[in-house]
């Protein structure tokens, strides 16, 4: 039992770390593709790929219901949404998979990465507040304090990487829209995971997001017809890794941890994205960015640590 308990404790943490690394890589890929593929086309392309990949896994994977075949009661469910669950699914798919992706892709063409990271990371704070009000998670002091410290680290990163001058206000507004869509998506996703598996929730929400982005089909055809094979490869990568895999590992962790604590972990995305851009794109980060990354690590640690008994 002790080994099983340790495994149950570490698996959600491992899942969120996979999510953090892959979502950070998405920032790098979006930045790389920004001048070749338009925001809507990129959103539709990656969602189409993710929907196909996840759909294949759903078809070949047989998911037992909780308590069936001797599985322990209280496991995370693996059925299908019912009743109001479909409403939560539509909200999650349209806001997080649809609006968030389009807004972030467009924003990163208008503002620098530091400003984008700083504004989008309003999202975890909104999630902590909404989870306390709507999901009954309350307002744990550790989560709130850790989120505040981590957000301070994001601010340091943002100021250290900003090139100076007035930011594009439309880009700033789009970052805020992305943050709000992110928060709404997580809050609507959490109730679904009581009865539906992480894989199935991610696939269904991805399909909803794909349908919402179908008006960008002409732009996708136009952009990819003139794109190089490497560009198409990056779009496929965004669909398979940061979308299909990372959103599934996120849902797995969210089903087993509070929304506020899980969201606070995503404050690690900006420092990891800076490191990846340094390694892959040769973008040398400012020394202050490393300090900001350290503050983010401290904040995430504070939000996730468990009180000693």
What is the SS-derived class? mainly alpha
Topology, number of strands: 0
Order of helices and strands: HHHHHHHHHHHHH
Net shape: globular
Major beta-sheet overview: none
- Could you give the distance between the termini? 19 Å
Strand % is under 5%
- Helical fraction: over 70%
Instruction: Quickly count the helices.
Output: 13
Uncertain segments are 64-76
Written overview of the protein:
This protein is an all-alpha fold and 309 residues long. The protein has one domain. The chain is 75% helix and 0% strand. It has 13 helices and no strands. Helix 3 (84-107) runs antiparallel to helix 7 and helix 5 runs antiparallel to helix 11 (259-265). The longest helix has 32 residues, at 2-33. Mean pLDDT is 81; it is low at 64-76.
How are the secondary structure elements laid out?
Elements lengths: L1 H32 L5 H22 L23 H24 L5 H8 L2 H12 L6 H21 L7 H24 L5 H15 L4 H9 L3 H28 L2 H7 L3 H12 L6 H18 L5
Q: Any descriptors?
A:
mainly alpha; globular; 309 residues; 75% helix
Summary, kept brief:
With 309 residues, the chain is mostly helical.
């Amino acid at each position: 039992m002790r080994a099983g308990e340790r495994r149950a404790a570490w698996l959600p943490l491992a899942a969120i770390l996979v999510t953090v690394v892959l979502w950070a890589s998405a920032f790098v890929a979006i930045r790389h593709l920004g001048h070749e593929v338009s925001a809507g086309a990129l959103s539709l392309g990656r969602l189409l790929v993710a929907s196909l990949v996840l759909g294949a896994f759903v078809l070949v994977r047989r998911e037992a219901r909780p308590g069936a075949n001797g599985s322990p009661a209280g496991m995370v469910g693996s059925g299908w949404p019912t009743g109001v669950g479909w409403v939560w699914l539509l909200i999650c798919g349209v806001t997080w998979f649809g609006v968030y992706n389009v807004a972030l892709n467009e924003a990163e063409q208008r503002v620098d990465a530091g400003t984008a990271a700083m504004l989008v990371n309003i999202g975890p704070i909104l999630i902590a507040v909404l989870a306390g009000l709507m999901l009954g998670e309350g307002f744990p002091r550790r989560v709130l304090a850790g989120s505040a410290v981590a957000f301070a680290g994001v601010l340091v990163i943002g100021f250290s990487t900003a090139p100076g001058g007035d930011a594009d206000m439309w880009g700033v507004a789009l970052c805020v829209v992305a943050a709000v869509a992110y928060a709404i998506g997580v809050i609507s996703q959490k109730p679904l995971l009581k009865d539906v598996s992480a894989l199935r929730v991610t696939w269904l929400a991805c399909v909803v997001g794909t349908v919402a982005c179908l008006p960008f089909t002409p732009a996708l055809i136009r952009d990819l017809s003139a794109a190089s094979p490497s560009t198409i490869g990056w779009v496929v990568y965004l669909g398979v890794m940061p979308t299909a895999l990372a959103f599934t590992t996120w849902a797995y962790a969210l089903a087993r941890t509070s929304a506020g604590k899980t969201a606070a972990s995503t404050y690690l995305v900006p420092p990891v994205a800076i490191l990846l851009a340094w390694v892959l794109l040769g973008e040398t980060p400012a020394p202050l960015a490393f300090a900001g990354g350290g503050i983010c690590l401290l904040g995430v640690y504070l939000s996730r640590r468990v009180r000693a008994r």
